[in-house]
Amino acid sequence: MLVARRARPPAQNLFTLPGGVVEAGETLIEAVTREVREETTLAIEPVALAGHREAIVRADDGRIERHFVILCFAARWLSGEAKPNEELAELRWFLPSELVGLKTTEGLADIVAAAFERVAETAR
């Protein structure tokens, strides 16, 4: 699996999955394909939704500043070589067992496990 170390807040220096925002008029599949291509230069084929997470960013006074709903997809690599950019300080291919001990976004190991299950289900 491909894991990225973010170069910018809110997940700066944490290992997470590549991704970004859905643009107006774009489907989720189009968005994940585009975002991964823009962030990594890889061409992928999204297979299935692997899960979701929510991240709520609060100001010092407790006010909610931003609320992210993060949809994570299992995908197959089609072509290209992963290259970091200004958003991603590092890109690395890992086995799921290699996530242990890394600073990751909350729930990454669970999402990765679900993604592997979804890919296996589509291969049957």
Give the helix level as a range of percent. 10-25%
Tally of individual domains = 1
Which secondary-structure class do the elements indicate? alpha+beta
Strand arrangement in the largest pleated sheet: 2-1-5
Can you describe this structure in just a few lines?
It contains two helices and five strands.
Write structural notes for this entry.
The chain has helices at residues 28-40, 108-123; strands at residues 2-6, 15-16, 43-58, 64-79, 88-93. The longest helix is centred in the last third of the chain and has 16 residues, at 108-123. The protein has a three-stranded antiparallel β-sheet, with no helix packed on it. Strands 3-4 form a two-stranded antiparallel ribbon. The protein has one domain (2-123): Alpha-Beta Complex (Nucleoside Triphosphate Pyrophosphohydrolase). The protein is α+β, with helices and mostly antiparallel strands and 124 residues long. The model has no long low-confidence stretch (mean pLDDT 90).
